[in-house]
Amino acid sequence: MGMPDTMVSSRPAAYAATIAATSLGFVVVQLDVSIVNVALNRIGAALSMGIGGLQWVVDAYTLAFASLLLAGGALGDRIGARRVFVGGMALFSLASLACGLAQSPWVLIAARAVQGAGAALLMPCSLALLNSAYASDRPRRARAVGLWTAAGGIALSAGPVLGGFMIASLGWASIFLVNLPIGVLAIWMAYRFLQETPLKAERPPVDWAGQGLVVLTLFSLTGAFIETGSSGWISMPVIGGLLLAVVAGSLFLLVESRTKAPMFPLKLFATRVPAVTSLVGLAVNLTLYGTIFMLSLYFQQERHFTPEITGLAFLPFMAAVTVSNVAAGRIAATHGPRLPMAIGLLLGAAGFGLMALIQTDTSYLSLLWRLLFLPVGIGLAVPAMTTALLSSVPTGMSGTASGVLNTVRQSGGAIGVALFGSALALGTIQGMQLAFLASAFAVAGAALCAFLFIRDADHSAA
């Protein structure tokens, strides 16, 4: 536990243990992003929930996660990333137990929100611990980030597969209860293998105003998008929610520009790397999370797949994203992040464009080869994106910077679920075609920004 950084970075066993311990935090966070999707039909039937309620089951978690990520990163910088990591894992595990025992829609939705709060503590501190361990060895840090991202990619992709078989044999509650043993193992490994990060000399006050305004902004915006599916874009709840989001978002930016200790430091965006990586993260998560939500419902409601078959339908996705993540870490370590980011995003955009051509009679195999462009492309882009951001900021800001990036990403994910779910009101195939076409343009635009504005020579701040 007290090994200096040089020993941590030079011993293979310690290197593997550090990656494994930090990756467990990422694994449970990503697992609960995707595993719930394959259970939506069963949850809806058991708790009498419609599409709007099911969107909230997904988005209550994602929104709480996004809203509190900034606080989680700042808290880790303030009192130590390992302390916050352990506390977040404990909270996440207890909330998972509450989800598994829920007997009403609102209890489940509330427990999912608490899960998201625990995830918000885990995610930035997990990455900050990894970054701190290898701050003096950039190539090894790049490879470690690739492996950390691969672990999350495996969990994200394996969620539907694991969930399908667990639901069939143990019921939908089991997809939440599986987090309990993982949480216990992660807490033990954190105390056994991870060093506490250095504390900041100054401890600024908590930005409560900014925290409250970001919660209000994200929940009102996403709630408005969810409501469009049943009420339409010109209904009062939708218009009111959008107006509230605009007002709250404007006040949030005003507060953050004037406070001495902002939770969302706007100065991070004074340089192009944090701004571009945030844009890329927004495009990736909005399109990817929306796609997983939409395809999970499509497979079960339109193709009449069982939960197990639905999970297996995502299995090739899992293999592709894993290989891409590992390869991207090596490419970024050798050639810098610009190339894998731009190429990966272009592959993703091509995949979405091909997915937009599906018809009612499109077979699974025809859908699959189009779908595989997404994990290959996004799997290349995400580790490079993360490495680019961490390499462009001082080590002491890594927790806050990763919190900003992941807040943008998870906000995009929640909005993607809301928008893609609402598009289904047009009809399943028509909604999918529209969503995938819009995704192709969004990801292509992100690729262009990465190519034009990311320069490998910029990464010298760390």
Question: Care to give the gist of this entry?
Answer:
Helices cover 80% and strands 0% of the residues. With 462 residues, the chain is mainly alpha-helical.
Structural class: mainly alpha
Unreliable spans are 1-10
Count of DSSP strands: 0
Helix content: over 70%
Q: What's the level 1 CATH class of the largest domain?
A: Mainly Alpha
Distance between the termini: 24 Å
CATH architecture of the largest domain: Up-down Bundle
Q: What count of structural domains? A: 2
How much of the sequence is in beta strands?
A: under 5%
By CATH's scheme, which homologous superfamily of the largest domain applies? Answer: MFS general substrate transporter like domains
* Overall mean confidence score, pLDDT: 85
Biggest sheet descriptor: none
**What overall geometry do the principal axes of the alpha carbons give?**
globular
CATH topology (fold) name of the largest domain: Growth Hormone, Chain: A
Rg, alpha carbons = 21 Å
Total of helices = 19
Which sequence of SSEs, written as H and E, runs from N to C? Answer: HHHHHHHHHHHHHHHHHHH
